Amino acid sequence: MTLARHDAPPPDLRILPTDSLQPHEEHDSQRAMPLIERLRNEQYVINPPIVAQMDANHYVILDGANRFYAFSHLHYPHILVQIANYDSGYVELNTWRHIVGRWEKEQFLDRLHRLPQVAVIEGYDENAIAHVLCRDGQTLALRAGDQPRERNAALCDVVRVYQRNAVLHRTALTEPTDIWPLYPEAIALVVFPSYQPADILAAAQQRAFLPPGISRHIIHGRALRVNYPIDALRDTNVSLEEKNARLRQWMQDKLARRHVRYYAEATYQFDE
Q: Of the candidates 9, 110, 229, 230, which lies 20 to 30 Å from 45 by C-alpha distance?
């Protein structure tokens, strides 16, 4: 059953042990390192990671791998998260598309052909790990092994090629004709296959990570601009149970003071 977008429940915010979280994708070092430096002196958690429960003691990170990595790197014992449930009807799993820009097409394709675990073929292939749609109209399919670990590892190699040599933008747009005018320096669009929740869970459980910035989880009722005190998470003298009790009281106070507002419409944010 498809639930109405205006029917999202209040966010399920919890404080969990940092080491109970498991990513399903590699972290982005270009984003993670500045985040680590910022969190050293940050006063508040602004946007908590989104996680889904895998078993009694572990959670897969749906969104927020870089924030988790920063907390782990800084040895913060606990982390504020929002719990989401794949089966709730309020979670959509899509993929981003990668726009490759400020590079030469010939160099890009040459680097792809050099990857030992990747076969580059002309045209479309339903078993491809990704397709490259070039600005000049050429379409290439990237093939790899049959096993998820092989395919995910090969896909990580592909993304590293342009992550290290080009400018990478993510987009939810699907039509190249809509993308090229917005990104005049783009040379190609990389399109990924669809994933299922089981693929995300398996990637985390088997540590067969996807590249960063491919899976796109849309959470209806996502908590943003939470601004929860980060010192409450750093504190090693307060038990996890007490921290969650204080979080519940904090939530109740926020609701009582009408400091929580729900926006049902899709939005664009211009201050990221």
A: 9
Residue 55 — left, alpha, or beta (φ > 0 → left; ψ -120 to 50 → alpha)? beta
Q: Which of 30, 169, 161 is nearest to 97 (CA)?
A: 169
Residue with tokens 């009807």: 89
Q: What domains are defined for the chain?
A: 5-93+217-256 (3.90.1530.10), 97-191 (3.30.1760.10)
Q: How many residues appear in the chain?
A: 272
Tokens of 67: 């924030």
* φ, ψ (nearest 5 deg) of residue 20: -85, -10
Beta bridge pairs of residue 225? none
Q: How far apart are CA 108 and CA 93, in angstroms?
A: 29
Give kind and range of the element (H or E) at residue 92: strand 91-95
How confident is the model over 116-141, as pLDDT tens digits?
Answer: 999 999 999 999 999 999 999 999 99
pTM of the entire predicted model: 0.90
